[in-house]
Amino acid sequence: MYKPVLSRFQYTRKHGKRRTYDVTINLVQKASGVCSYAAWVHFQAEFKGSGLMLPLVANTRDAAVLEAQMRVQTDIDNLIGIVE
What we know:
Number of domains: 1
Helix content: 10-25%
Strand order of the largest sheet: 1-2-3-4
Radius of gyration: 13 Å
């Protein structure tokens, strides 16, 4: 079993108010090999949501981190689980 991976980045929404959000992703690969994540999205220190947190398709930690980042970015752009 792997240790959790913590990833932080900023993402600017492509439309709407075009805010730049601070994103934290906590990713873990379970003993079964399935990767899952939890995300926290903030704007100016205010929690805005976590998006949809579904199991990832990727089977390596590096690929899973990229997949989780892309999913959160899509959630932010489409305001899925995120309040603008």
